[in-house]
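Sequence in, structure out. Go.
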Amino acid sequence: MHDNTYLPDHFLRHIAAIMPAHLAMEEFVASCRRPLRRSIRVNTLKISVSDFVAKMAPLGWQLDAVPWCDTGFWLTRADETVPLGNTAEHLSGLFYIQEASSMLPVTALFASDKIKTDGMLLDAAAAPGSKTTQIAALMNNQGMLVANEYSSSRLKVLSANIQRCGVTNVGLTHFDAKVFGQWLPETFDAILLDAPCSGEGTVRKDEDALRNWSLERIEEIAAVQAGLLESAFHALKPGGVLVYSTCTLSQQENQAICQSLLDKFGDALSFDSLASLFPGAEQACTAEGYLHVWPQIFDSEGFFVARLRKHHSVPNTMFKPGKLGKFPFSPLPAKEADPMAHDIAATFGVALQGQLFGRNDEIWCFPALFEQVQGKLRFDRIGFKLAETFKKGYRLTHEWALAHGDLATRGFVELDNTNAREFMMGRDVWPEQEAGAGEVIVRYQGHTLGMGKWVGSRVKNALPRELVRDTNLFAE
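Output:
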């Protein structure tokens, strides 16, 4: 029990006034004081769900299915000695540590029969990356996903999680999400707006989440949310699908925000009922068809999810193109791109996908749909950095290895447990196999840890320094 969880009286009175009659306040308070069940989501860009379950069973991992996410599980481990983030499977990007309720918005988005998995999608408030990586996996790295994050301090974590999970179709931006309706009207086939909120549903993981709670603060946040939703609606193509979600409980930030959009644009949109999204969803469904997840219903965080469809265009008084600086990349000429693609295929058995662009001594691989937004938006990162060039050739990057190394049919080395631990500690390794030459993908149990280079019978470590782990790694 979290006996120190702060639940102020004025907050509890507010909740009592809006809680559905069939739910009990005693159960709400008790659930808020219970620790969350740990949950993870399998990253199907790297491994199938069935293979992951089979892989983890010998390690004593009990995986109980999350009913609203085909790749989500509540996790119980027989051995908690190694932190979950230091397990080999996490370091290789096979799973993402994600609260079960937060898997709901993406499930709702992709349950729509209108979704285009190879289209142009937007995650308007993306950090730390749980939903971005979930979307990318469902897109199978096709199309393009613009992942936006307003907080500069959270960008680095978002970028690191995208790379670890082998995501290659993302363009990363850093703006107030209000700009998308202004700069990119009717651009996106689908949008997720997991809006910033008061976080009332998060007390089970943060006992001080409600320290500064007030109705006045809720009203301030609601005004921001309404503006973000309207902007996202303008950025959505007619026929497109948008999911609005929060991790809070107050109707001012949830039902009222959706109603404000209906009031403003009328028959230009409609909200879908989510009552049949998964078995048991009706327990959390409101009269409007939204999911209002109270923590005691599914033993989870509190959450709100609504899905709308845009039927036709509306006047956009927001439109104001952004000012862009000079784009620092140039398409890589075919005389350079074709030999590189052929060389990578010959060395590793992996075919490159996307468009190659160059900048100084860097070569990047951009999503194929990038041209649809080129010159309309400034990006912090696009796709992934494929290689760094030097006088005598090029050197493939760690992020290329994480994205493509598991698919390699040659040019890789398999490490045993001891060597894998040494590699993740930043040390060179001596694999028990015939030495090769040049760059090599370093794998453990079939999954990529990074890149190395053969130097005699030794593989020189090329793991980025910021990823080196020196203590409490996966067990020997």
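Check: The mean pLDDT is 95. DSSP finds 14 helices and 22 strands in the chain.
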